[in-house]
Amino acid sequence: MAEGKELIELKFRIYDGTDIAHSTYASSMTVASLKQKIIAEWPQDKTVTPKSINDLKLIHAGKVLENNKSLADSMITFGELPAGVITMHVVMQPAIAKNKTEKRKDDMQKLNSCRCVIL
Fold first, then answer.
1. Helix, strand, coil shares, percent, the chain, to 5
2. Are 83 and 76 in contact (CB under 8 A)?
3. Which pLDDT does position 38 carry in this prediction?
4. What is the pTM of this model?
5. 13/5 Cα distance (integer angstroms)
């Protein structure tokens, strides 16, 4: 098979143990493209739903996969399992709310030049 044309069978496990987007993917597919597919197939009955690819992290073999890398670049171990299906974990990490950012700025203003808290 030509390089980049190798197929990998994947499924993605979300926070409640549900598996989604079980399919075969090209090893040349990027992590960002996978995340888009996961968002498109996200179950509508879940209380937490990702809004963008930046809300998701894909984890394989203890490593968080980078959006700009392909599956092959991410060193996905394919073909080593008897069943041939690789399960990746999907972690939701929504964008930080502005209120938390504003609070951090307020806390930073309380610090003087020696990084001591002024009460």
1. 20, 30, 50
2. no
3. 94
4. 0.70
5. 25
φ/ψ of residue 42, rounded to 5: -60, 130
> Sign of dihedral through CA atoms 29, 37, 24, 67?
positive
For 13, the token pair is 């496990």
Residue 44, amino acid: Q
8-state DSSP, 14: -
pLDDT digits (tens, 9 = 90+) for 61-88: 889 999 999 998 887 765 555 567 888 9
1 Cβ contact partners less than 8 Å away, ≥ 6 residues apart: none
d(Cα 46, Cα 92) in Å, to the nearest integer?
A: 12
Q: How many CB atoms lie within 10 A of CB 88?
A: 19
Q: Which two tokens stand for residue 6?
A: 């190798």
Token pair for residue 64? 């968080």
SS3 for 22? Answer: strand
**What is the amino acid identity at position 85?**
V
